[in-house]
Amino acid sequence: MKKIAMGILAHVDSGKTTLSEALLYESGNIKKLGRVDHKDTVLDNFQLEKDRGITIFSKQAVLTLPNTQIYLLDTPGHVDFSTETERTLKAADYGILVISGADGVQNHTKTLWEILEKNRIPVFIFVNKTDSPLFEKEKILAELKDRLHTHITDFTQVNFDFYEQAASCSEKLMEEFFENEKLSDKSISNAVKNREIFPCCFGSALKLNGIKEFLEILDKYTLAQKEKTEFSAEVFKITHDDSNRLSHLKINGGELKLKDLISYTDKDGNITEEKINQIRIYQGGKFKQAENAVQGMVCAVAGLSKTYCGQILGESDERTDDMINPVLKYSLVINDGTNPHIAYEKLKILEEEECKLHISWNESNNCISMEVMGALQLEIIKSLVMSRFGIDISFGNEDILYKETIENTVEGVGHYEPLRHYSEVHLILEPLPRGSGMVFNSDCSEDILGKNWQRLIMTHLQEKTHLGVLTGSPVTDIKITLASGKSHPKHTEGGDFRQATYRAVRQGLMQAKSVLLEPYYDFTLELPTDNVGRAMMDLERMNSTVMPPEFKDDCAVITGFAPVSEIKNYPIELTSYTKGKGKITFLLHGYGVCHNQDKIIEKYNYDPEADLANSPDSVFCSHGTGVLVKWNDIQNHMHLESVLNPKKQEIEIKKETTRKAIENYACALEQDKELMEIFERTYGTIKRDRYYAMKTHKKTELKEYKPSKNIIKLEEYLLVDGYNIIFAWDELKKMSEDNLDGARYTLMNRLCNYQAYKGCNLILVFDAYKVKGNLGSVEKFHNIHVVYTKEKETADSYIERVAHQMRHKYRVKVATSDNLEQIIILGSGALRISAENFHTEVENVEKTIREYLRGDPAVRRVL
């Protein structure tokens, strides 16, 4: 039986919880059909949810169908809890999007669709409340196609028309339809999995209409994950009960057993190994204990004390960044006299469960603050803190969560060199389009900086929230590329590169042209036509971008976007002047340029150079002690040349060299003068012919040089360190991760072409020193020789020995990226070529050969 995780999501009040209850009941997984208004549903089991009639926390339940076991992930519908919805969906193989048949596609529906799209989650759509008098099937279907996706297809009747419509969603389906005039279930399932078609069903969850048919479609058109043997799981939720801290996992590969030891890295970078004490399978608020969990299952485990939301355990796949983040920040007021430090520790437990709260402590004023999505979330947090921890809190000052970005490309340099430490990092900071977030990349050759150091720098770049220099707000929409770096063979430690990396980012930001960003809301404003004039003036005052109003009967609809800081409190004003007839809904639009940047910067009064925790300055070593060098003077002290402006720096170096040469020459003249005075005091005055330089002297004829006929042109040998080259060339390195033999064979073939063009004797050497009993071997592969070293002999030692033996009889070159090996080779009298230069040379040869084969006459003449 296939096992899949399926998230269910909707705009608030679309009937999502009612549909979940109906699916569980109709599939026989619960015996009693609960109702939201009766406060007895399986999934909304918290008292706060029962009291308010909405889903606040994500839950899990199991649906067992004839061929499928579905782990249903129920998510909150209200926009204030959408961060939890997005986080939960990262554990889903499929999604069910619930649409209200009465209301159609609403604001938050569009956001949910974008989350599903970004995470490449296949979607089944269920249009609920079809018993409403406002429901019109053709109108809803047209709206879905127009506002969400044109490939949304009605699956209620499977006939010729259905096949014809489905076939238009992909070329494969079209070919199959033309051949058979129908489509197989497998083909449709693959198209659903690939997001080429989106099944749409209709019904009324409250009345159980269309539920059985929807379950059949879920059973028929879903596919299990591709099987993976290695254990892999994602932590999508953290909860606490009376005695346990629970990590909620989606198993993406392999198997997890009770009492298994799990090794993972915590948030601080420490390796932790802990035992699984419990495996729970939840059905709403109840659970059953299990002995194991396999791929596709959703479970909660006890025993892991340092996991966090979004963490990957075991083998990891590429993850997408979050789309939704809080835009408001509030200070906390403790009303019952609880010690703020105790309250802070308790609140950090909440942050484990909802990581986007970002609860922080301000040492200067002993104040706690947290980031939230909106007013409803504040109410829920206040109730949770009282019920779980017995602390009475309220919320004080509200602030907007600003961000910063840059407008130009700069090079940031960080150097960290106190006594017995050393590191230097060069980063390129480039602006990205709005909404891109932070992107990190490496474009640094391993010939310059070792792979292990590069990985460490990339870790340090991603582990920290980097702050801007205008207000100290987090930066966004920037691509940071590792361009160059330097370590010391004796003095560099891991922490050195952390310091250099942080300082390089900060130094780059200090040079760049920074821009302050603020959050914007998309708004939909509905109000009587008599109030349109007042609303338009208000929106203009709030720096809004407004679309032309749409009028229908006595009602007008105005849409647009505006700064959160200006429009967040407008609902109160709207209710007042429309006498309760107006309604406005908000949806996060994203971040844009702050409309009153100068005012906000002045308000924050942030001094980036005084922020010692985020220093832009570097530390250099002078006379055995660390010396602080200001950020704007680092170019005059850094040890590596500039990446962005190498020519400019070369000119400066030449100027400096010339200046030093003049100084040395002047100093030499002074020394000559002193020596002459000593000489004359000892041996008397020396008489010079002042006109000697002006006299004409007889020239001495030089005989023409004729080269010896006995000079012998030495035969050329090229020795190539095979594995060294494979791991230095990006294309071969990537291939080797899946198939090392394939990478080796590809290199051998490319070098055959190279040898045929160059005409040298080419010996390709591979390590085999770890193979016990191996005596070594030499093979002829087409026109090159391939050597496999014997046991306990490495490729570099073999190359060193052979180069030394051949140096008098032949012209020997060695291709490698090993710096130590290059030094040894030079000492042996051989020429050396770096892996990077050799790569360029091989590519040029291949290009020439291709042009010849294509018949380029210019190349043919040369060849």
Which helices and strands, and how do they pair?
Elements: E1 2-10, H1 16-26, H2 47-52, E2 59-64, E3 68-74, H3 82-89, E4 94-100, H4 107-118, E5 123-128, H5 137-147, E6 152-154, H6 160-167, H7 171-180, H8 185-193, E7 198-202, H9 211-220, E8 232-240, E9 245-253, E10 255-257, E11 261-265, E12 271-275, E13 278-283, E14 286-289, E15 292-294, E16 298-302, E17 312-314, E18 328-334, H10 340-353, E19 360-362, E20 367-372, H11 375-389, E21 393-400, E22 403-406, E23 410-416, E24 423-431, E25 438-442, H12 451-463, E26 478-486, H13 494-511, E27 514-528, H14 532-541, E28 545-546, E29 550-552, E30 555-563, H15 564-567, H16 570-577, E31 583-593, H17 597-604, E32 618-622, E33 625-629, H18 646-683, E34 716-721, H19 722-728, H20 730-738, H21 740-758, E35 761-766, E36 777-781, E37 784-788, H22 795-806, E38 811-816, H23 819-827, E39 831-834, H24 835-854, H25 857-862
Parallel strand pairs: 1-3, 1-4, 4-5, 5-7, 6-7, 25-26, 34-35, 34-38, 35-37, 38-39
Antiparallel strand pairs: 2-3, 8-9, 8-17, 9-16, 10-15, 11-12, 13-14, 13-16, 18-20, 18-21, 19-20, 22-27, 23-24, 24-26, 27-30, 27-31, 28-30, 29-30, 32-33, 36-37
